[in-house]
Amino acid sequence: MRLGYYRxxxxxxxxxxxRALEEAGxxxxxxxxxxxxxxxxxxxxxxxxxxxxxxxxxxxxxxxPMPGLLDLLTELVARGIVVQSLLDDLRTTDPxxxxxxxxxxxxxxxxxDNGPRKRGRTPVLSSHDLERAxxxxxxxxxxxxxxxxxxxxxxxxxxxxxxxxx
Length: 166
What we know:
Blueprint: E1 2-7, H1 15-23, E2 28-32, H2 40-48, E3 54-57, H3 68-78, E4 82-85, E5 90-91, H4 95-109, H5 127-139, H6 144-151, H7 155-161
Parallel strand pairs: 1-2, 1-3, 3-4
Antiparallel strand pairs: 4-5
């Protein structure tokens, strides 16, 4: 079965858009006017579709916004349902389209790196260098300027990180 789906914007469906779905050979056409969400009728249509059925839309964006669109397309392709977008000129029977959808979905689902991102600047001094600086300033009574030169940092950095009695 070839099913057509059109989401009405605020200005309503135009005859040309509806005719485009008719000319695409759709057996049934659902015009959805629920703003921002898929209607229960569309959800039940999608649930009833089986391997070999085709879903024809004017634009992919009529189905749902990203990244949910990638999840829906992946699900439909896995169930053997062909999705065709008339104005986007794409059809999921094209292996390149299917591969692109799967690739994009993988990047929407999986984070790019494996771990939480650290915020802020990388510390200039390691904990070992800070301990060494404390020892030189407090125990060895070296001037802060000399320790800063040895460690390659500014005096302000040492004052910020090493408790120095004034």
